[in-house]
Design goal:
Blueprint: H1 9-16, H2 20-28, H3 33-36, H4 52-62, H5 68-78, H6 87-101, E1 118-125, E2 132-133, E3 136-137, E4 141-147, E5 153-158, H7 164-178, E6 184-187, H8 189-194, H9 199-216, E7 219-222, H10 232-252, E8 256-257, H11 260-277, H12 279-286, E9 301-306, E10 312-315, E11 318-321, E12 330-335, E13 339-344, E14 347-353, E15 364-366, H13 369-378, H14 389-392, H15 396-408, H16 411-427, H17 431-443, H18 450-457, H19 475-489
Helix pairs in contact: 1-2, 4-6, 13-16, 15-16, 15-17, 16-18
Length: 490
């Protein structure tokens, strides 16, 4: 068209590189081809022409969240002749109607994140990873803390589910490893953990959470219930962290760990490497964090229990054994996520692994055979009906010994053999060696004799070697004193 301003149509077309016929056609209609296209019309009759406005729209107006598949089923019930082929057409028409006439939708407001302003906490279920401890499945969760600005992360393996104890321990570990405190702490874990509790308990635990945040000078906040994107700065990283753990387990070649401590060290090392990649941003945010208080807050729950004549106490549907000399005493118990600490007054007595109780009618037991073996030796016949018999055996070898002895010996003799073996393991501190010997005997198809076990691990006192100590006479010291005096005078 530029050449056409000064030349004739044939000349302008030739200079532009196409025929004169095309030049005349463009001169008559200079619009580009895209503007000459006419909208494509419908190629077949609209199957919803008679029913969409009359039947589908009233359904959508009455129930805006109604799914298209439900509307399709209702239409086919009313008009079977329509057929399943209308599904895509119906979905497209419903989507268009909702865009023009549907209800307003929620808007997500993107936020500007300032360094040092907010940290978030949440729990995520880790059971799907298939982690095992010494061959036993480990149902657990992961407490996850994250700073919004720098992406600093901290994880803590939780065994007892979402609770204030797990939250307090994980949050404080994160803050002390970080070396500072953000201005605000947000979580939805309290809503998830406490919504089934009695109102008075919920109020008490909420007050404890507020006190925890107040001790560190953080403003406590929660996202609205069911609105996950308000906690999006940690909800999405949940998936990234779990995928990273899954990859690390695949590279490790095994999902089994010798102990929970080994698994926790594995998680800590992985998260440490992830934090190292964000070191510059984390260091920049550390500079504006608030200082830590002088001390941590106690993150355990306190309870008072009484040791019963059964040689233990009940706590949260779990029976714990303690030395029998504590029967009748009131003990103070501090409950943590994975352990309980037992005190008599202000004296710390012991630390026991925390058990799991499920419901009012399903109790668990945490048993140390050393606490009851002296009494069981006097009453070995109590072993078959003991409510915590399976938890009494410290190793699988002793459980195998019980099963084999009950099958091969009279009940009384079998009980004496098993109880005697446990007593030897306790008195001679040979639990592992004795278990290995028992396994060897059972694998060979024979039961060990109690007398042989005693001879091997607990020999009679008269069989011990006699040691004679020759004492130096006191007169020898006079000789040494005289020699020392002569040396001094010389």
């Amino acid at each position: 068209m530029k050449h056409r301003l000064t030349d004739t149509t044939p000349v302008a077309a030739a200079r532009a590189g196409f025929s004169s016929t095309t030049g005349y056609r463009i001169a008559q209609d200079p619009r580009p081809p895209s503007e000459k296209r006419t909208p494509r019309g419908r190629r077949r009759p609209d199957p919803l022409a008679d029913v969409f406005d009359a039947e589908v729209v009233p359904m959508l107006e009455a129930s805006p969240s109604l799914r298209p598949v439900a509307i399709l089923e209702e239409l086919l019930r009313r008009h079977p002749e329509l057929g399943l082929g209308i599904r895509r057409t119906l979905e497209r028409r419903i989507r268009q109607w909702r865009a023009l006439h549907g209800p307003e939708r929620e808007v997500i407001f993107r936020q500007v994140h300032e360094p040092g302003r907010m940290g978030l906490s949440d729990f995520t279920d880790m059971s799907g990873l298939g982690v095992t401890i010494a061959g036993e499945p480990l149902p657990h969760r992961l407490y996850h803390f994250r700073l919004v600005f720098s992406g600093f992360e901290h994880g803590h393996v939780v065994l007892q589910g979402e609770s204030f104890v797990a939250l307090a321990a994980g949050l404080q570990d994160a803050l002390w490893s970080l070396g500072g405190v953000p201005a605000e702490h947000r979580t939805d874990s309290l809503s998830a953990a406490f919504h089934n509790l009695a109102p008075e308990v919920q109020e008490d635990w909420t007050a404890r959470y507020d006190a925890l945040c107040g001790h560190y000078g953080m403003a406590a906040s929660r996202n609205n219930r069911g609105i996950a994107h308000e906690n999006g700065a940690i909800e999405a990283p949940h998936g990234h962290l779990k995928r990273a753990i899954e990859d690390a387990l695949l590279l490790r070649g095994s999902r089994d760990f010798d102990s929970i401590a080994d698994y926790r060290a594995f998680i800590d090392a992985l998260i440490g490497r992830r934090n190292a990649r964000n070191r510059k941003r984390i260091d920049a945010e550390r500079a504006v964090l608030r200082p830590l208080p002088v001390r941590r807050v106690e993150d355990g729950e306190q309870a008072m229990v009484t040791v019963t004549s059964s040689g233990g106490f009940m706590l949260k549907n779990v029976f714990y054994t303690v030395p029998s000399r504590l029967i009748g005493h009131r003990l103070r118990v501090r409950t943590h996520d994975d352990r309980i600490e037992v005190f008599l007054g202000g004296t710390h007595l012991m630390t026991l692994p925390r058990g799991r109780g499920y419901g009012a009618n399903r109790r668990s037991h945490v048993v140390d055979y050393r606490h009851v073996i002296h009494a069981l030796r006097a009453k070995p016949g109590a072993l078959p009906g003991l409510v915590y018999r399976d938890q009494l055996f410290p190793r699988d070898a002793y459980r195998r010994l019980y099963d084999a002895a009950m099958a091969a010996l009279p009940q009384r003799a079998a009980c004496k053999l098993v109880v005697g073996a446990l007593a030897i393991a306790h008195e001679r501190a040979c639990e592992a060696d004795l278990a290995a010997l028992i396994d060897a005997n059972l694998d060979a198809g024979s039961l060990p004799a109690l007398a042989d076990l005693r001879a091997r691990f607990a020999p009679a006192p008269e069989a011990l070697p006699q040691v004679t100590v020759n004492l130096t006479p006191l007169s020898a010291y006079d000789v040494l004193t005289a020699a020392a005096a002569e040396g001094a005078s010389a």
